[in-house]
Amino acid sequence: MHVIGAVTWVGGLVVLAATAVALRRNRTRDDDDSRVADDWAQIWERFSLVAMIAVGALIVSGTWLAWSHVGTPGQLFTTAYGRALAVKLVLVIVLLCAGGYNVRVLLPRIHALQQGGDRRGVFRLAAQHFPAVVLGEALVAVCVLAVVPFLRGSARAQAGAPAAVSFDLSTFGTGVVLIAVVGAAMWAGTRRSVRPLAPSDQAYT
């Protein structure tokens, strides 16, 4: 689950970044800005849904793996495995923040502009802002993969601590609860109301 989620999320970001850069370089002045903007907005929204599912799988499986290999918070700083994992977690948090910004800020703005008939505003956000955002996310995602080879062994073993207990019904029940919590959080994160932009919102960053 962890590998599939990572490949789906990171691989999708890298492919989108490469596509965005290539299309942006090959674009001519005769291109239909409205069509380009609509295409990118649709791609962005659909990938956000796929990424959200992948992230949910990563959170659940990653929590299990971290508990299996790290016994205490202190082992994140006192062992080589823990320090590599801590770096990976920081990078993943950066990706989660970027994804949350896309879903909670940029996509609602695009929907509001579409409803208001502002095609240039949609183009500016979707077709011009999108390549830069997704390229940044892809670079961070590649950095996450670069940390993976350093996750060798176990922080528990390196700290001389006992191994994690074997999988049992209690662990299974905790996993079910965690899956339910993550699923509810992901669902809540997609609930948004599209409203017209205030004048102060017209400045796109």
UniProtKB/TrEMBL annotation:
Biological source species: Mycolicibacterium crocinum
The family database entries (PANTHER family) matched by this protein are listed as:
INNER MEMBRANE PROTEIN YEBZ (PTHR34820:SF4)
Give the way it sits in the membrane. Answer: Multi-pass membrane protein
The residue ranges of the Copper resistance protein D domain are 42-148
As for subcellular location, the record says:
Cell membrane
* Entries under Pfam families matching the protein: CopD (PF05425)
Instruction: Extract the InterPro entries matched here.
Output: CopC/D, Cu-R_CopD_dom
**Protein's recorded name:** CopD family protein
User: Chief subcellular site?
Assistant: membrane
Q: Which residues cross the membrane?
A: 6-23, 43-65, 85-107, 128-151, 171-189
Keywords recorded for this protein, A-Z = Cell membrane, Membrane, Transmembrane, Transmembrane helix
